[in-house]
Design goal:
Blueprint lengths: L1 H8 L16 H69 L1 H64 L2 H19 L1
């Protein structure tokens, strides 16, 4: 931060040419501005980003646990369906003569319904995870950007006191006056 201040203060030592104008040399002004903004972003955004990512990680883990519980419920349903299937197979042996094909259709329907339920639950889990990840990424980006801007403004406002501001203006007026002559 002192190097930025020194660059403003050193402007007062330049001979004045008696003119007023703007410094349009992009190569001279952009590195200073970029280094200040990047420094502020890294300094203030690192802790916030870590906190946001930790919170987001906990939410994602919670969502995964919930999805795992749903999966366990689906497995229990599958076990019940298998028990029912065994029961249907036993009845099929008893009623083989009367309605073997009807029982086979019932068996297939149960298996298909259970597989469909498991697929839907798995798809729901995957969609939920993707949605939560995208939402977390967008939220982190927004917060980091807002806090970085607030930090940069706070740092700039705290560094520019009235004396430094007056000296910078005087130096720039002197430079511009020298350019006009």
């Amino acid at each position: 931060m002192k190097s930025v201040t020194n660059s403003f203060v050193s402007l007062g030592h330049w001979p004045s040419a008696g003119g007023f104008g703007f410094n349009t040399d992009i190569l001279a002004t952009n590195p200073i501005n970029l280094s200040v903004v990047l420094g502020v972003l890294i300094y203030f955004g690192k802790g916030v980003l870590n906190d946001l990512l930790d919170n987001r990680k906990q939410r994602i883990l919670s969502t995964i646990r919930n999805s795992e519980e749903l999966r366990k419920g689906a497995i229990e349903q599958l076990e019940k369906a298998r028990a029912r299937l065994r029961k249907v197979e036993t009845e099929a042996n008893e009623y083989r003569v009367n309605g073997y094909s009807e029982i086979e259709r019932e068996k297939e329907n149960l298996i298909n319904a259970t597989c469909d339920s498991l697929e839907r639950l798995e798809n729901y889990k995957n969609e939920t995870l993707l949605f939560e990840q995208q939402r977390a990424i967008n939220q982190v980006r927004r917060r980091v950007f807002q806090q970085a801007l607030q930090g940069a403004l706070g740092t700039l406002n705290s560094c520019l006191n009235s004396e430094l501001h007056f000296r910078t203006i005087s130096a720039n007026i002197g430079i511009l006056g020298a350019m006009e002559e």
